[in-house]
Amino acid sequence: MEKVENEEASWTICPECHGSGKKSRKLSKKIRLLYQIALDQFEKTKDEGTAPVRPKAHLYSCLNCSGSGLLPSAAPPIADTENYPHIAIIGGGIGGIALAVACLHRGIPFTIFERDNNFDARSQGYGLTLQQASKAIEGLGIFSLKEGVTSTRHIVHTTEGKVIGEWGIRKWVQPDTKTTSKRSNIHIARQSLRLALLEQLGGHDMVQWGHQLIDFKECKDEGIDLTFQVNGDIKSFKADMVVGADGIRSSVRKSLIGEDSTPLRYLGCIVILGICPLSALEGLTSSLLDSATVFQTANGNERIYMMPYTSDSVMWQLSFPMPEKEAKELSAQGPDALKEEACRRTQWHDPIPQILAATQAAQISGYPVYDRELLKVELLEKGGQVTLIGDAAHPMSPFKGQGANQALLDALTLARGISKGCRPLSQWRKAGLRENVLNEFESEMLERSAVKVKDSAEAAQFLHSEIVLHESDAPRGRCLKNKDT
Ligand SMILES: Cc1cc2nc3c(=O)[nH]c(=O)nc-3n(C[C@H](O)[C@H](O)[C@H](O)COP(=O)(O)OP(=O)(O)OC[C@H]3O[C@@H](n4cnc5c(N)ncnc54)[C@H](O)[C@@H]3O)c2cc1C
């Protein structure tokens, strides 16, 4: 990501690429001709063989907007209520706010509802690593993250501190070589990323806080009626499309497809998380605490992962197998019990015991890890004008750091799909939002995220097994299959 300040107050979509950030090259005359011949041939023989697939044009990054799909503007576009459907976004987490931002840039009318009473209603303290989504956030108008920290080194140790793996640009690139931050991961507190998105949206007032979705149903005439609980009262709202961005325990998903077909699936382990300021580690010097190193230490059962949280604090995530009942009980006992358990299990090399001991109980949380079986396109197809994004659609374990990345990609892809499928003269009211937007969006989203859900579930197993201890300068699990982690 370029280190450019987000000095532009507003954005609008690039007219050259219509906000997609990409343009397609024209198909060559020869390819068009070959396709036409194959098509004519197929039509002549009708039922025999399969129809030729229309060749796809090669895409390239739009030069006018440098691939973000956005251009600066004095003010956000005025919502086009004539042409576009009104979108009700349920959930003001990472995915929901990102979708609202992408709708704002495109003049798509929306209302975003969040059940929490305000931004800080619950402790939401943990850090995220932006991988592929560091490009997607440019498509959301965020060109630099003030609070983001870039890591350049990743190390794996045994519990005695022996290094069994190291990678990252510091390992592979000579120190005097000029490197770009584009190839590194960006670590950021979830609330800092959420705040950056909220700033893009125009501030806290753009969210309907304290609105918990209770139910929705399709109206007889047109659109969908939604019911919310607000301060003990019941309120109604009408929209053309509903997007469930309401997390792993999504009410929208429950109303749409029920709980029984894809219930929460326990992945056999618990995670305990903590945030520790470096100032609490007085007198301790360690090259692992340089605010640019991610490290993990494991013994084949417990595994701790430590990353920069801000430039002056670290986040740790300890995980280990545990039966579901015990994991729920431990989580319910609260921060002091979680801290005691974490410290007991990690009397390992420096600086791990010191960091855990110095972490205040108030900065510790823990929960059993769940995902759900992959959603099938057919289950969502029944949803008419209702769809899901982020954890509501494809919850996954945190071990690949992909949940928020996928939620951001979903949000941008859906807004781009609405913009394209509901453009003036598209007749979406006649054809339906499912036909014009949702079918294509859902099949792309489910295909893209399926591998991440699967890999994240596999990581919940192998990170707590002997496999994690193999010596190689590559992310763990790469020996199982040759792909990125
Ligand atoms: C410890 C940990 C570490 C992680 N690390 C990473 C990482 O490094 N990289 C990464 O990409 N991902 C990571 N993730 C995953 C990531 O946080 C989630 O995948 C991401 O937040 C999902 O975004 P979302 O918008 O779908 O849901 P959420 O962010 O969970 O937001 C859902 C929102 O919906 C609201 N809501 C729920 N029900 C209702 C209702 N009925 N009415 C109105 N509002 C409602 C909730 O209050 C909440 O605000 C991590 C997760 C954890 C727990």
UniProtKB/TrEMBL annotation:
It comes from the Bacteria. Residues 87-419 form the FAD-binding domain. The keyword Calcium does not apply. One of its GO terms (molecular function) is monooxygenase activity. Pfam families: FAD_binding_3. SUPFAM superfamilies: FAD/NAD(P)-binding domain. Signal peptide: none annotated. Keywords: FAD, Flavoprotein, Monooxygenase, Oxidoreductase. The keyword Flavoprotein applies. InterPro entries: FAD-bd, FAD/NAD-bd_sf. This is FAD-dependent monooxygenase. It comes from Flavobacterium cerinum. The lineage of its organism: Bacteria, Pseudomonadati, Bacteroidota, Flavobacteriia, Flavobacteriales.
